[in-house]
Amino acid sequence: MTDAVGRDPEAVSKFVESFAAQLVEAGMQRMPARVFAALLSSDEGSMTSAELGEQLQISPAAVSGAVRYLTMTHMVSREREPGSRRERYRVHGDQWYEALTNREALIKRWEAALREGVSSLGVDTPAGRRMAETLAFFEFIEAEVATMMERWRVHREKTFGAG
């Protein structure tokens, strides 16, 4: 059995569950991982709560909780259907970029806390040196991510055109 564009719905479902399992293994919660994988694998990149519930065989409450998590992490956005009260949940082509970029704010907060820790503990103490090394690591990562993201923008435009 195939869908309107010739895909096997069972194979698509297996992919969604397999990719979701990989996301769970990487630390994402199970329901958000399943919803994200379903959205990512849909041609439109968007689905309603009812469509997600039907495809994944989950309750509206499970969809709602998953979408709440995914919107907080900037991996999915909510959109109103024109002329309707229904919302659609959309995954964007640059969701990985957005998710990683939003982590930069978290890293900056960690850096500020670590600077305070180095100052409080004293840079010449074992704990202070450990804090300083951790701070240096995050500063390094922050600089590398910024450089990498610029390279990605250039690569993405060359590969997929202006987005």
UniProtKB/TrEMBL annotation:
Gene3D superfamilies: Winged helix-like DNA-binding domain superfamily/Winged helix DNA-binding domain
Entry keywords, A to Z: DNA-binding, Transcription, Transcription regulation
Keyword DNA-binding: yes
PANTHER family noted in UniProt: HTH-TYPE TRANSCRIPTIONAL REGULATOR MJ1563-RELATED, HTH-TYPE TRANSCRIPTIONAL REGULATOR MMPR5
Lineage: superkingdom: Bacteria
Protein name: MarR family transcriptional regulator
InterPro entries, per the entry: HTH-GbsR_regulator (IPR052362), HTH_MarR-typ (IPR000835), WH-like_DNA-bd_sf (IPR036388), WH_DNA-bd_sf (IPR036390)
Presence of the UniProt keyword Amino-acid biosynthesis in the record: no
Residues covered by the HTH marR-type domain: 27-87
